[in-house]
Amino acid sequence: MRQVAVIGSSSALPEDEIYQFAYNLGLELGKRNLVVVCGGRTGVMEAVCKGVKDSGKGITVGILTTYDGSDGNPYLDIKINTGLGWNRNPLVVASGEVVLAVGGHFGTLSEIAYAKILNKTVIGYKTHRVEGVIQVSSLEEMLELLDSHLK
Predict the structure, then answer these.
(1) What pTM was computed for the model?
(2) Which range marks the domain in which residue 143 is found?
(3) How many domains in the chain?
């Protein structure tokens, strides 16, 4: 199975547009039967995992900050408990063939930096405007670019 990493804010709420975008992204990633790797927590990470699970396909993996997995969202198929705190960020982006950034704050910014150090393609929606990040304005555009990179 192919793997993608999804990064974004842990503070996005279900009523937020970013959360809804991440959920719909998860639905589409699941339909493509992808392994979705993320930080496994709340916000964008929870939304994308929920979407994958609701699609009935795909696998969700959370690379968590704690040793006991207590920070994991309920939609994870696999929990990787690291105890590394935010030092786990390079592991998240290293695990995806492509990195999809949805919104985000400083943790997302650090993941984008690691992804670029690792020469990963980063496709972003309403995320940090950093050199090398391909900015998109719709889910359809993100998915079109993702599909072309996974071929």
Answers:
(1) 0.97
(2) 3-150
(3) 1
